């Protein structure tokens, strides 16, 4: 509502933007009695970790920089009549990475795992390095190739090389 009020106050220059904003669902904000600027209203709606999973669509560089500082908020903008979803900010990527690692193993379990390894003597010592054992390999694949047949000489015909066999007659 604050964005629509701000667009109305700016006059006819932004009438088209006001019409576009009115097409979308209007969310109630906490300052509907005394409206504030649009960017302040949007920032107040995404506070506390963006509980309603809002996307922010803006061309304002100042607002987009403020949005990028908060993790987990998708940012949309327009380039040459095309809507573009901005790549996740480094804060968002770090936040997701932290969440994933915390979900795998809780912190108290990590501590108990370390204690159990120390107790059993499974902790790796830094000075000790293992060498990889060389395994026996198979034969050289190039030595396993089939032998090539010799080419026949051009002066001889293949039928002349073969001896003619005589048929034996049986005596009965």
TrEMBL record:
Residues 119-129 have a biased composition (Basic and acidic residues). Coiled coil: none annotated. One of its GO terms (cellular component) is small-subunit processome. Residues 162-172 have a biased composition (Basic residues). SUPFAM superfamilies: PIN domain-like (SSF88723). It is found in: Nucleus, Nucleolus. Residues 119-172 are annotated as: Disordered. GO terms for biological process: rRNA processing. It comes from the Eukaryota. It holds the Pfam family UTP23_sensor. Residues 130-149 form the UTP23 sensor motif region domain. Gene3D superfamilies: 5'-nuclease. Its main location: nucleus. Keywords: Nucleus, Ribosome biogenesis, rRNA processing. The keyword Glycosyltransferase does not apply. Involved in rRNA-processing and ribosome biogenesis. Belongs to the UTP23/FCF1 family. UTP23 subfamily. This is UTP23 protein.
């Amino acid at each position: 509502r604050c964005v629509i009020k701000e667009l109305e106050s700016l006059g006819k220059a932004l009438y088209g933007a006001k019409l576009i904003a009115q097409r979308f669902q209007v969310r109630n904000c906490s300052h509907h009695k005394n409206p504030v600027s649009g960017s302040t209203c949007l920032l107040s709606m995404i506070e506390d970790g963006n509980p309603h999973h809002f996307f922010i669509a803006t061309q304002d560089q100042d607002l987009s920089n403020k949005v990028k500082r908060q993790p987990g908020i998708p940012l949309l903008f327009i380039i040459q009549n095309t809507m573009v979803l901005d790549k996740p900010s480094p804060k968002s990527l770090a936040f997701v990475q932290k969440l994933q690692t915390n979900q795998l193993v809780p912190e108290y379990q990590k501590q108990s795992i370390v204690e159990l390894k120390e107790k059993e003597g499974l902790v790796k010592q830094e000075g000790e390095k293992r060498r990889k054992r060389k395994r026996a390999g198979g034969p050289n694949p190039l030595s396993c190739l089939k032998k090539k047949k010799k080419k026949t000489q051009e002066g001889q015909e293949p039928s002349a090389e073969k001896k003619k066999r005589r048929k034996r007659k049986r005596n009965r």
